[in-house]
Automatic annotation (TrEMBL):
It comes from the Bacteria. This is mevalonate kinase. It is an enzyme of class 2 (transferase). Keywords: ATP-binding, Cytoplasm, Kinase, Lipid biosynthesis, Lipid metabolism, Magnesium, Nucleotide-binding, Transferase. GO terms for molecular function: ATP binding; mevalonate kinase activity. GO terms for cellular component: cytosol. The keyword Cytoplasm applies. The lineage of its organism: Bacteria, Deltaproteobacteria, Bradymonadales, Lujinxingiaceae, Lujinxingia.
Length: 307
């Protein structure tokens, strides 16, 4: 076995389609240049440190359970390792920190053990995501494993591979703000399921409309029409509100961003708290959107995604 290993995973932004994607509809997401870096080496004392934009802590609970499962998939024991993960995205805020962490750790474990292939990395990450998120669609893990903008549809039945189509998108200037403490993805997903069971006649068409918005958003991006892509983000936000996953701070952040010149703004991830993403037309409007959000003390991130 080698002395030490490093692995990387990406954070994500969902541009269209969260929640409906769990119910089989199309979504569009991108893997971010920021994410997680995991470092592993055989150690006498086992430690697992997580550093993230808000501080540093020793992993416990769910993280430890998921991490143990990941390293065991590669024939390693967590208790015999010194492990650390550096996260550049905020934890549990809708930017895919758990999937980025799981991918980074699985890649590091694969390198350290010299065992397994990319398929085993994907399986280990899927099991970890189930620990974190319950009934997840797999979109976060797909973004964490790959870069770029892509269309995603979950497998038709549990265990079936998702349909992932890389997309040609124009340059995208995204601004993300964390506007509230995050809610648990598993809880939010369960809440939407419960709503769909109570009001199928209203919620099934809402999922379908979100799927249509994702398809139209994909077409707008592929045609290089960022104006339309932004407008469709606004429509998606309205439909997410109908699912009950927006909150006052998210609504306020979307309105502030649009007033500051964003082409579109919506929550990203499971909602109930967490992050808002805005599509900015140019560097000057990115500055104005940040200014509006930072005046509310919301931490901001800025991404320029190459075409
Ligand atoms: C979470 O980032 C996105 C959700 O659609 C859940 C999932 O797809 O697993 C809310």
């Amino acid at each position: 076995m080698i002395d030490a290993a490093e692995g990387r995973g990406r954070g994500k932004v969902i541009l269209y389609g969260e929640h409906a994607v769990v119910h089989g509809f199309e979504a569009v997401a991108c893997g971010l240049p920021l994410g997680a870096v995991a470092r592993l080496r055989p150690g006498k004392t086992s430690t697992f440190i997580i550093e993230h934009p808000g501080g540093r802590f020793e992993a416990d609970g769910q993280v430890l359970k998921a991490a143990r499962g990941i390293v065991e998939s590669f024939g390693l024991e967590l208790e015999a390792l010194e492990s650390s993960v550096h996260l550049a995205v905020p934890v549990g805020a809708g930017m895919g920190s758990s999937a980025a962490l799981a991918v980074a750790l699985a890649r590091a474990a694969r390198e350290l053990s010299g065992q397994g292939d990319e398929a085993r990395v994907e399986e280990a990450v899927a099991r970890a995501e189930a620990v974190f998120h319950g009934q997840a669609s797999g979109i976060d893990q797909s973004a964490a494993l790959r870069g770029g903008v892509f269309a995603f549809r979950r497998g038709a039945h549990p265990g079936a591979p998702p349909q992932i189509e890389p997309m040609q998108a124009p340059a995208l200037r995204l601004v993300v703000a964390q506007v509230a403490p995050s809610a648990s993805t598993a809880t939010m997903v369960r809440g939407v399921h419960a709503l769909a069971r109570r009001y199928p006649a209203a919620i099934t068409p809402t999922f379908e409309a979100i799927g249509q918005v994702a398809r139209a958003g994909r077409a707008a991006l592929e045609a290089g029409d960022v104006q339309e892509a932004g407008e469709l983000m606004n429509v998606n936000q309205g439909l997410l509100s109908a699912l009950g996953v927006s909150i006052a701070a998210i609504d306020a952040a979307c309105h502030l961003a649009r007033q500051a010149g964003a082409l579109g703004a919506k929550l990203t991830g499971a909602g109930g708290g967490g992050c808002v993403v805005a599509l900015s037309p140019d560097a000057e409007h990115t500055r104005l959107i940040r200014q509006a959000w930072e005046a509310r003390d919301w931490p901001c991130f800025e991404f320029y995604l190459e075409p």
